[in-house]
Known about the structure:
alpha/beta, five-stranded parallel beta sheet, globular, phosphoprotein, Bact_response_regulator, Sig_transdc_resp-reg_receiver
Amino acid sequence: MHSEKTIAIVDDDEGVRISLASLLRSFGYRVSTFGSATAFLESGAKPDCMVVDIQMPAMQGDELQARLIAEGRLIPMIFMTAFPTEAVRNRVLAAGGRAFLEKPADTDALVHEVERAVA
């Protein structure tokens, strides 16, 4: 069980947040969900790992990553997007992103990446 580890899910799609939270809880993780990057930043949350959508209103996932890095908050981040591009993939991975998954994400791949990130 991974009950001591907290995973933050940041995605503007409520259905995605609910399904990912349910999946990760079934593997014993504590999960916090946020509908935007701004909501995450305002929460003061300190997760062990984050699953972050790239395309969100106001602040995109790669912008959230840059902001957290600038603040010295080096949280393992797994990115997901329905609109993958090599440019974004390369940018987030070069900045320390742990994985870049295409939506809908393969659940086994997602769980594997979360397990790697919190190990």
